[in-house]
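Supplementary Note 3. Input sequence used for the single-chain structure prediction.
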Amino acid sequence: MTTNSTPNPTVPAPEQRLRMDGLAPDYYKAMIAVDRASRQGLDPVLAELVKVHASMINGCAFCIDMHATDARKNGEQDHRLVSLPAWRETPWFTARERAALALTESVTLLTQGHVPDAVYDEAAAHFEPAELAQLIALIATINAWNRIGVSTRMSPAAK
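The predicted structure, written as C-alpha cells, is reproduced below.
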C-alpha cells in the first residue's frame, strides 16, 4: 500500500478546449444577457434547483458546481441538492418544485418523449403563464450553457 502526503489527492481537470468568452465574445455576452433575462420573475432558489438539475442530467461539472454554490448562497440545503437525481423518491420538494423539476427533465431530454402534456399541464397548474414562460426560458438557457460547458470542457476550480 502506498501513501500520499496529501490527504485527498485530486486529479487535474481536463484541459479546456477553448474559451468561448474570448473567441466568440459577442455571442458570449448575448448568452449572459439571455441568462439574466431568463431568471426574471422566478424565485432564485427554484431557479438554481432547475439549473443544478439540468446540469446534472447533462453532466456539466462546471455548471453543477457554480449553481450548487449559488443555491447554497440563496439558502438551499445540501440534502436537497445532492438528492436532485432522485427527487421523486424524497419528501422534501414541494409540489411546485416537483412540477418544475419534471418540466426540466422533459425539456432537457427532448429526445425521450418530448414534453408530455401531463408534465406541461402539471407545471401550468403551479405557475402563472408568464412565470411558466420564464421557467421554460430558464431551462432552455441552462441547457445551452451546459452544451457550451461540456463541449469546451469547462471545469470547476479546484477546492
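The mean pLDDT is 93. The CA atoms of residues 50 and 114 lie 18 Å apart.
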